[in-house]
Prior knowledge:
- By secondary structure, the chain is mainly alpha-helical.
- The protein has helices at about 5-15, 25-30, 40-50, 55-60, 80-85, 95-100.
Amino acid sequence: MSGDLACTYAALILSDDGQEVTADKMDALIKGAGVSVEPYWAMLFAKFLATKSVDELVANVGAGGGGGGGGGGGGGAAPAAAAAAAPEPEEEEEEEAMDFDLFD
């Protein structure tokens, strides 16, 4: 098992149990599971999780990132003006008036 995956599981377990996620607690949990990881992994995770809680990260899965955004917007009033100036669609002619029926 990779170190980052072991620390991720340890952080999730500690958070789910309502405990503070620290490097020492993650190390103890990982060693108790019989997994050996590089010693820096728990420290890195603990420093990161000091700024954001595990619950917050889990709640925002898939909410961030880029995603190939659309085209750039123009000025602030341009969308409102474009919506107001949009022409009304023309009424379509009846099929009877065209003497054409697709199913005849």
